[in-house]
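Posted in: Structural Biology > Protein-Ligand Complexes

Title: Requesting predicted complex, adenosine-5'-diphosphate in pocket

I'd be grateful if someone could produce the C-alpha cells for the following input. Sequence and ligand are given below.
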Amino acid sequence: MCWIYSYGSISRVYRSSPDLKVIVLDDIVLRTSNLHYTYPDGTRALNGIDFEARRCNKTAIIGPNGSGKSTLFLHFNGLYRPTAGAVYVNGAEITDKNIDTIRRTVGLVFQDPDDQLFAPTVRDDVAFGPANMGLSRSEIETRVEDVLTMLGISDLRDRNVDNLSGGQKKTVAIAGVLAMEPDIIVLDEPTSGLDPESAAEIVEITEELTAAGKSIIISTHDVDLALSWADEIYVLKSGTVYRSGTPREIFGDKKLIDETKLRFPTVTKTFIEFKNRKILDCTGCTMPRDVLDLVDGFDKNEHVHGRIDVIRVVRGAIDMAAICSAVRNRDFDRIGAMGTLSKAVAVELGITCDYSTDVIQSAISAAVRGLNVLVLASGGMADLVLSRVSERNTRDGQQIECEIIL
Ligand SMILES: Nc1ncnc2c1ncn2[C@@H]1O[C@H](COP(=O)(O)OP(=O)(O)O)[C@@H](O)[C@H]1O
Ligand SMILES: [Mg+2]
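-- Reply #1 --
Done. Output follows.
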C-alpha cells in the first residue's frame, strides 16, 4: 500500500487507484465563518464575514477606510475574539488552548508599526519573536541577520526604533514577523508609507515566500498591486464581504468599482480606453494584469526571442568564482537582480544591474525584443522566474527560453 498526502485537487487523480491510499489535507489555511465583531463602544465593525485563504496563495483584501480590514486581520491570530462566528487556522478553531500554536502559525504585521514595535533597538525588536519561541542564541542571531539582510535594513540594526522614519518602522515591523518564520503571513497595508523601491522589495519578498510554501494575506489600497499580485481578492464594504474573486473578475466589474469607492487600476483603465477607441482588437483577449500583458495584447509583430538565464543565489552557498565566470563567459544584453542577497552579490562582483525592481517583467520584455538577459535570483525567486516565463509562453505563444544555469 502506498500513502500519498496531498493538498486539494491532486488527490482526485489518485483516489481511483485501489493500490493507493490518499489523505486529503485541506488547502484552506485560514477561514472565518459568519464572523461578527462589535467594539466596546457599540461600533459593529464586522457583520458576518465568510473568508478563506488558500495554502501558498496570495490573498488581497481591499475596501474603503473603515470597511473592517484591520479589525478582520486582528482576528486572524486570535488577538481579537469574535462577538459571533469563528476563525479557523488549518482547520482548527482558535481557542485559548491553541493560541500559542496559532501565534506561531499566523504572523500579523499591524497597519501602524507604532502598535507593534516596542524594544529599544531594531535588533532587539526583531529578535523578540524568535527569543520567545525558545530558540538558541545563535539561531536567533542568524534569523535576525538573515531577515535584516533580506529586507535591506542591516544598517538600521543598532538604531533606536523611536527615531526611525515611518517607512523604516514599517519594514522593521515586517522583519520582526518574518523572523518567526510563520506559515501564514498577514500584512495590514504593507506598502503604505514605503518609498517605491522598498515597496517593490516587500512585494518581491512575498513572491519568494509563497514560492517557498508560505501563504500571504495583505490588505491594500493599491489597486494596481492587487490586480498584478493577488491570486484571490476580497472586497470589503461596511464589515461585510461585498465580493470575492480573481483579480480579473473583481476589476472587470464596473458596478463593483463604483459602489465600493475603489478605482480601476491604471492598466485596466488603459485597456478599457484602448478598447473603446478601437485601438485594440479585443476579440477573445483577457484583461491584462500588468503593463506587459497589456502590450502583448496588441503586439502582432513577429519576434525573434532572446533568452533568460537565471543564477540561483543561495545564502551560505554562494560560489562567487562560478557566478563571475558565468557572467563573463556569456554575452548578456541586460542583467537583473531579485532579492537583497542577489543585489549584494552583484555589488560585490562589480556588476551593474539594469533591473532591480520589476525584474521578471523587465526580463521578459527584453527577451521579447530579442535581448539575452541574466537574472540573479535569491533562493525560491529563481523558480518564480521560470514559472512566470513558462506561464507567459503558454498563454501568449511566445518562445522565451529560460533556464537556471547555476
Ligand atoms: N478601537 C476601536 N473602537 C471603536 N471602533 C473602532 C475601533 N477601531 C476601529 N473601529 C471602527 O471599526 C470599523 C472598521 O475599522 P477598521 O477595521 O480599522 O477598518 P479598515 O482597516 O478597513 O480601515 C470602522 O468603523 C472604525 O471606525
Ligand atoms: Mg486598516
